[in-house]
Amino acid sequence: MQPITVAVVEIDQDQHIPVEKFVRQNQINVELLTDTQSNYDNHVERRCASRDGVTPVDNAIARIKRLNPRVLLVNANKSIDEYCDLLFVLRYECPDTQAILIINEAVEENYLLETLACGARGFITDNLDSLNFSKVIDAINRGEAWVSRKLVGKIMHQIVSASRNDFIEAGFDSSC
């Protein structure tokens, strides 16, 4: 079984999420690619120094291209604009890499909906345990999304509202 490669990206973060804790008792074959030193055998060190004249998003994309991970964990607890920019560029530059946002509990649902629209495959909280982390990585590797059931309801509401508006604009009678 080939390992699922997982990388971490942090855009101008002052707080590092210790992702190594998620894979301690991991039940799937994950190869973790991180910016920090680690004592784990499944670690590959990478350069993280930003180049002069390059935006943080461009620097992150260059690192992601070099690593070519299957799953990308994005520490996304700051400004939404940079993350949406990263997600848009990621869709075109690295189409085989699926992004998951690492968030804290206080993130607003509208923020999450916007990042999903930009290309994120889902989100996890920074207090996730090892077993659930394995489930998330395996699900994303299979092409699934990882969002809360409550958020799925909001997404479905938006889809239905958008399709109803499309029918009205097209002149169809929407008696449903």
Report on this model:
The chain is an alpha/beta fold. The chain contains five helices and six strands. Strand 5, helix 3 and strand 6 form a beta-alpha-beta unit. Helix 2 packs parallel to helix 3. The longest helix is centred in the C-terminal third of the chain and has 21 residues. It is globular and about 50 Å long. The N and C termini lie far apart (48 Å). 25% of the residues are buried.
What key attributes describe this structure?
single chain, 176 residues, alpha/beta, 6-stranded parallel sheet, 5 helices, 39% helix, 17% strand
Number of E-state strands: 6
Q: What is the string of SSEs from the N terminus onward?
A: EEEHEHEHEHH
Question: In this structure, how is the largest beta sheet organized?
Answer: 6 strands, parallel
State the helix count: 5
Low-confidence stretches: 35-49
**Helical proportion?**
25-40%
Rg calculated over all Cα atoms: 18 Å
Distance between the termini: 48 Å
Summed over residues and divided by their number, the pLDDT gives a mean of: 76
Approximate shape: globular
Tell me the structural class.
alpha/beta
Beta content? 15-25%
Strand order of the largest sheet: 3-2-1-4-5-6
Describe the structure concisely:
By secondary structure, the chain is an alpha/beta fold.
What is this structure's SSE topology?
Layout lengths: L3 E7 L19 E5 L8 E3 L10 H12 L3 E5 L4 H14 L4 E6 L5 H10 L3 E4 L4 H12 L7 H21 L7
Parallel strand pairs: 1-2, 1-4, 2-3, 4-5, 5-6
Helix pairs in contact: 1-2, 2-3
